[in-house]
């Protein structure tokens, strides 16, 4: 099976915008369509609390005519038009869909951050992990999230094997970002967040990219938009992942980034696995 995950940073802009960035985003969507994945996971959709509008759905159903669409949006008292996730899966797959809450602090459980698809033999789940925030003002809450999320995945893993993806908002090791020495207390590379990800893997999960590619350097999934040369200079971070239960790591065929051209921010990531 083939799966693709992408932090799209506003589905509305990608579908209906006319800026240069929106056009680049549509090009990335077209690339994803050409890959013909079985399931597509999107994070940071930033849709209204009621989900995609009629216009959004019309465009999505035209572009992804062979896919069912499910979503999880941020609802009050959480911020409007914030975070959010979406799955598109081929119509013949017929998974059971759930929108888990994990007992996270503040409004995190209301921000549309997790969707899980249950198949006969496995769970496929995606996450948009909360950012530690400016000045690390959300770091303590983020640490609680990491514990709760690890508990959630480990619970799934007791029932069936797990495939988990998304924007985890952490560069795990020094080789997962271009300038570790300058980012020791930056959101996404604090010792606390990195340890949280280590703890997650130690609950029985494999980072599929590292499993396939080892300690290769210079492979990233995100480049800061505010630095115009970040992608040209490959000054990036690897913060988007495909994880699998350890016991199915040997079934991985591919785990890699999909070229998003000159578009900065996140690039899609692909997993092929023999299920």
Written overview of the protein:
The chain has 275 residues and is of the alpha+beta class. The chain has helices spanning 11-16, 20-35, 54-63, 139-159, 191-201, 208-213; strands at 2-7, 39-43, 67-72, 85-90, 96-98, 114-118, 122-128, 161-167, 205-207, 222-223, 240-245, 252-257, 265-266, 269-273. The strands form 3 sheets. The chain has a 6-stranded mixed sheet.
CATH class: Alpha Beta
**Total number of helices:** 6
Order of neighbouring strands in the sheet with most strands: 3-4-2-1-14-12
Q: Which term fits the overall shape?
A: globular
Instruction: Please bin the fraction of helical residues.
Output: 25-40%
The fraction of residues assigned to DSSP E strands is: 25-35%
**What's the end-to-end separation, in Å?**
7 Å
CATH architecture classification: 4-Layer Sandwich
Number of DSSP-assigned strands: 14
Number of domains: 1
Q: Helix- and strand-based class?
A: alpha+beta
Major β-sheet profile: 6 strands, mixed
Q: SSE order, as H and E?
A: EHHEHEEEEEHEHEHEEEEE
CATH fold group: Deoxyribonuclease I, Chain A
């Amino acid at each position: 099976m083939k799966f693709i995950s992408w932090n799209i940073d506003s589905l509305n802009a990608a579908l209906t915008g006319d800026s240069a960035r929106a056009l680049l985003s549509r090009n990335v969507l077209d690339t994803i369509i050409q890959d013909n994945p079985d399931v597509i996971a999107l994070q940071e959709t930033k849709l209204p609390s009621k989900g995609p509008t009629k216009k959004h759905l019309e465009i999505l159903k035209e572009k992804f005519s062979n896919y069912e669409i499910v979503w999880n949006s941020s609802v009050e008292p959480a911020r409007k038009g914030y975070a959010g996730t979406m799955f598109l899966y081929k119509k013949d797959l017929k998974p059971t869909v759930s929108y888990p809450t994990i007992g996270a602090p503040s409004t995190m459980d209301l921000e549309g951050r997790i969707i899980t698809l249950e198949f006969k033999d496995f769970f496929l789940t995606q996450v948009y992990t909360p950012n530690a925030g400016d000045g690390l003002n959300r770091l303590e809450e983020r640490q609680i999230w990491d514990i709760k999320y690890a508990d959630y995945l480990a619970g799934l893993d007791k029932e069936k094997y797990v495939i988990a993806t998304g924007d985890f908002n952490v560069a795990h090791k020094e080789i997962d970002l271009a300038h570790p020495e300058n980012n020791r207390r930056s959101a996404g590379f604090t010792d606390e967040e990195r340890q949280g990800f280590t703890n997650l893997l130690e609950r029985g999960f494999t980072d599929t990219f590292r499993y396939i590619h080892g300690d290769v350097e210079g492979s990233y999934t995100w480049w800061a938009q505010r630095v115009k040369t970040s992608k040209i200079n490959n000054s990036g971070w690897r913060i988007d992942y495909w994880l699998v239960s350890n016991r199915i790591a040997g079934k991985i065929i591919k785990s890699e980034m999909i070229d998003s051209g000159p578009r900065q921010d996140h690039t899609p990531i692909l997993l092929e696995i023999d299920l």
